[in-house]
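User: Structure tokens for this complex, please. No commentary.
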Amino acid sequence: MEPLRKTLEDANRGAVAIGHFNISDLATLKAVFEAARDLNVPVIVGASEGERQFMGVRQVAAIVRSLREEHDYPIFLNADHTHSLPSALEAAKAGFDWIVFDLSTLPFEENVRQTKTAVEALKALRPDILVEGEIGDIGSGSEIHDTAPDLQRGLTTPTEAKQFVQETGVDTLAPAVGNMHGMLKSMVAGETRKRLDIERIRAIKAATQIFMTLHGASGTDDDDLRQAIGAGITVIHINTEVRLAWRRGLDAALAKQPAEIVPYKLLPPVVDSVKHTVAARLVLFSTGRRARPAAR
Ligand SMILES: [Zn+2]
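Assistant:
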């Protein structure tokens, strides 16, 4: 099974993106894995600090590893939005493939200093691990928001991106390019879509030549996502859409079977609902991808 870095290089070369989907439970993991397998594309599972706390850091790592080994399949695990070095080291020791070290709320110089320290500590422990840094403001909370933050103020510039990448030694970068965490009520209702600053993505890619991750992509205009991939985005994070599908699937299952108490009878519609959402995104992200050879 090829390592994560090779998977990103292949995606970058093929001008496609890898989907990254956050999970909090086994039903969601099952949905993400099945959707990826049906389409025969690599996939990344994310677990933020809150999601890891709920599932167990070592436990989620063990389950994802078991899928990868049993099916010889390129499914990877990312420690999403990790806010401290001890938390990052804990995930690295548990076997996560990738750490998003997010100190983007700190002043730029402090973010650079601490991210550099984290990269060195994580690589000393696990030379194969990938570390992502984040600059700019893309809000927080993959939830339904009433009002939109002012994204214009926190956009990443190519100059600071270049400086950040050079000084920290990160493997991947999460820029602020019009994306934001969570969705507005109007997006859930299908009335509005997030729009991306494609030229900014292209300029940051040209300045850094680094792998770039688009966070907070739920509710983004499909054509903007296609263009963002063409401009240099290699991984796309979807969380809120997954959570929304999970909730809708659960609501429907409970309404349809009000007396049912058996979890494995109630949860399959949740898996189907999430799988449908994940599959639609994976098809969009991997347009143009040649099908990889079937797993041996
Ligand atoms: Zn994120």
